[in-house]
Amino acid sequence: MPLLFWIWRRQASRRGEPDDIAKIGMGAWIAAASNLILVIAIIASGGAPVHPIVPFLYSAGLGISFLYYWPTLLALVSRAAPAKVNATLMGLVFMSLFISNNLIGWIGGFYEKMRPAEFWAMHAAIAAGGGLLVVLFGRCLSRALQPA
């Protein structure tokens, strides 16, 4: 987290810090890339075990992606939500985490039914879908969330 704060502070000093929606989108793309690391390593290994650094890189990438989108989303909702419904909307954000973690558990059930490369490619596609939504709707959302 301190490294990301340093990067964002540095970007802000140069007026190049991405807005909150862009950070959330970047988190989605980093998650997709992290899953693709596994896919590429699995395919390249040809059925042999992957090098131990690969799961480390995957986990580090997912950790960074989470730091890009989760604190940013919490700050965005707490700042943009009207005061009367702020706590309710914050609760909904945490509810979305609960629902997504349950979906992750359900999706994990496919691990034994799919080949590993397909399983992780599915995860990459899900994350890329989030990134694509930000590409398609990010500007409109950013404008809508700007203070009046």
Overall pLDDT metric: 92
Q: Could you tell me how far the N terminus lies from the C terminus, measured between alpha carbons in angstroms?
A: 30 Å
Q: Give the overall shape, derived from the CA principal axes.
A: globular
Query: How much β-strand is present in the residues?
Result: under 5%
Quaternary structure of the protein: single chain
Count the helices. How many?
5
Number of domains: 1
The helix content is over 70%
Which structural class matches the secondary elements?
A: mainly alpha
Total beta strands: 0
The poorly predicted ranges are none
What is the chain-wise order of helices and strands? HHHHH
The main β sheet shows up as: none
**Gyration radius over CA:** 17 Å
Description:
The chain is an all-alpha fold and about 150 residues long. The chain has one domain (about 1-145). Helix content is about 80%, strand content about 0%. The protein contains 5 helices and no strands. It has helices spanning about 1-15, 20-45, 55-80, 85-110, 115-145. Helix 2 (about 20-45) packs antiparallel against helix 3, helix 2 (about 20-45) packs antiparallel against helix 5 and helix 3 (about 55-80) packs antiparallel against helix 4 (about 85-110). The longest helix is centred in the C-terminal third of the chain and has 30 residues, at about 115-145. It is globular, with a radius of gyration of 17 Å. It starts with a helix and ends with a helix.
Secondary structure elements and their pairing?
Layout (H helix, E strand, L loop, with lengths): L1 H12 L6 H26 L7 H28 L5 H23 L7 H30 L3
Helix pairs in contact: 2-3, 2-5, 3-4
